[in-house]
Design goal:
This protein is an alpha+beta fold and 384 residues long. The chain has 12 helices and 17 strands. The strands form 2 sheets. Strands 1, 2, 3, 4, 5, 6, 7, 8, 9, 10, 11, 12 and 13 form a 13-stranded mixed β-sheet that branches. Strands 16-15-14-17 form a 4-stranded mixed β-sheet. InterPro entries: Acetyltransf_17, Acetyltransferase_Eis, Acyl_CoA_acyltransferase, Eis_dom, GNAT_dom, SCP2_sterol-bd_dom_sf.
Length: 384
């Protein structure tokens, strides 16, 4: 059974049936039609047995912002197979074939949401972003001193320019975020039943937004974005105005978010869990774009059994990268997953060294640590 690109509408429909069965989604006809449209825009890989689809996955083409620069990204989604074909190596074939195709398309990094972290670690993926959720009881909805910001309630259409503007502004504070196009906002972010408010300053300039819903006396905040502290406080005060309507508020936030620290009672419930995974598809190209600046030459010995073109020793000096033909001697040894997590800003080289995931001289570890010290914290508020 070989991996092939699915381009026929009949195969697409079979793929939707497979996903519906594997994930027990119960797609409506409208959802099936939407998925069919998306598949025509994405790369779909499948494996057939006796002309019937046994397993498949999709690759979404997008861009991500890593430490202020944009990189072409392939998003893995809808990885699935029928139970009778599982544990036969089909997903391994699909993933490794997708790495080849992504490299051909110039996608230097790949993201996915894992059903099981340990499974995808086998293929070079590593956690790069956590998700934090606050749960705030009604009794703790205490307002800040009134700021200068004012709140404007808008429809999705009315708020979209401000949402896009503010989202792009806040990207400068994080690493790993998705470059949201207008199409992405409309097809992936917008959800019927959500509310949108924009916070403006005294000069009527947008400084923050809130995307939320209210269900069963719970205010569910999907995004709480602010580019000034005044906007952060004004939006919080708006949330507090719902104290007669809700028993609690849940807020999704970046791991580095400090809202709890600002509250009268910071001892609110906070949950943090590993969320999305990433892996570099083309190490040499990624490092060349990344321009890792070191004070002296640094050698990185990279292992990557699922994408063998990445294996080898990379000499890094003054932002320039050279893959050594003879393999080189010494340097740091690490696999592609930990390397990805370091360069995106999720973990530090020192922590991974003492965790046994980087091997080499401590002076080289410290040199790599110095080179990535200004990488911003990771955040990924999207899903696919």
């Amino acid at each position: 059974m070989n991996v092939e690109k699915l381009i026929d509408e009949r195969d697409f429909k079979k793929s939707i049936e497979l996903s519906d069965y594997a994930f027990q989604r119960g797609f409506t006809e409208e959802e099936k039609e939407l998925r069919l449209q998306r598949m025509q825009e994405n790369l779909v890989l499948g494996i057939k047995k006796e002309e019937e689809l046994a397993a498949n996955l999709q690759v979404l083409s997008s861009e991500v912002c890593i430490n202020g620069e944009y990189y072409s990204m392939g998003g893995i989604a809808s990885v699935g197979s029928y139970p009778e074909h599982r544990r036969g190596g089909l997903v391994t074939k699909l993933l490794e074939a997708s790495f080849v195709e992504m490299r051909k398309m110039g996608q230097v990094i790949s993201y996915l949401h894992p059903f099981k972290v340990s499974f995808y670690r086998k293929y070079g993926y590593e956690i790069f972003a956590d998700e934090k959720q606050y749960t705030i009881e009604n009794v703790d909805l205490k307002r800040f001193q009134e700021g200068e910001g004012h709140i404007v309630r808008l429809s999705f259409e009315e708020s979209l320019p401000a949402l896009q503007f503010l989202y792009e502004k806040v990207q400068n504070h994080y690493s790993g975020t998705l470059n949201r196009t207008e199409k992405w906002w409309r097809e992936r972010i917008y959800k019927e039943g959500d509310y949108y408010i924009v916070c403006k300053n005294k000069d009527n300039q947008e400084e923050g937004y809130l995307r939320y819903e209210i269900n069963n006396r719970t205010m569910i905040v999907h995004e709480y974005v602010s580019i000034t502290i005044d906007a952060k406080k004004s939006i919080w005060n708006f949330i507090c105005q719902h104290d007669s309507m809700v028993d609690k508020v849940t807020i999704k936030a970046a791991k580095s978010d400090i809202l709890a620290h600002l509250l009268d009672n910071p001892r609110i419930e906070q949950k943090i869990w590993p969320y999305f995974m990433a892996r570099i598809i083309d190490v040499e190209k990624f490092l060349s774009l990344y321009k890792l600046s070191t004070k002296r030459e640094l050698l990185l010995n990279v292992q990557d059994s699922s994408a063998p073109w990445n294996e080898g020793t990379y000499a890094i000096s003054d932002g320039k990268v050279e893959k050594l033909k003879d393999g080189g001697q010494g340097g740091l040894k690490l696999s592609v997953g930990p390397l990805t997590a370091i360069l995106l800003g999720y973990v530090t080289p020192i922590d991974l060294y003492y965790g046994g995931q980087i091997h080499g001289d401590i002076s080289d570890v410290e040199a790599l640590q110095e080179a990535v010290k200004n990488v911003k914290p990771t955040y990924f508020p999207d899903f696919f």
